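JOB MANIFEST
job_type = single_chain_structure
chain_count = 1
residues = 168
[input]
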Amino acid sequence: MLIMIIEVLLAIMNPGKIIMAISIGLMAGIVEEYLCRGLIFGTLYQLFKRKKTIFGKLIVPILLTNLIFSSEHLLNLSSQSLIITGGQMIQTFGMGILFTCLYIRTQNMIVPMIAHFTLDSVMIFLLPIAQSDQVNPMITFGQAVVVMTIYILFGIKIIKPVFKQKFR
């Protein structure tokens, strides 16, 4: 934990890293959210909205959207290892579910865009720690699953009132 705090403080003192974090955060936050939550989820929701169950009507579009979102990160194999990319894909699947739940709950694309920008910007500051290839693959996988689970649990908490209102 102390190492992470020191890393963040060092990153803050590096103006180049701040610009990079803001640039990547804005690009990912706006472009990926518009594409994934706006276009892909919106289209899948329209295709599945006539299904009779909540699973078919809402859960399937959420899962498919975020499988696509997670798979987009395979492009990172050009600059990082399979272990790191696999862990990132697991985490982004959960993160995407959280962002989709934010979008459904608020009916506002800005909310997941801000959340995505914030998370990505913070991760840029932590990048040297997150990209170390000197890690045990099982630890990386385990950590990714834990992070994914936390994101999904937050997403469930956020979307629960929508289930109570729309799907009684």
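[summary]
The chain has a mean pLDDT of 85.
Helices lie at 2-12, 15-48, 54-72, 82-106, 110-125, 127-130, 137-166.
exit_status = 0
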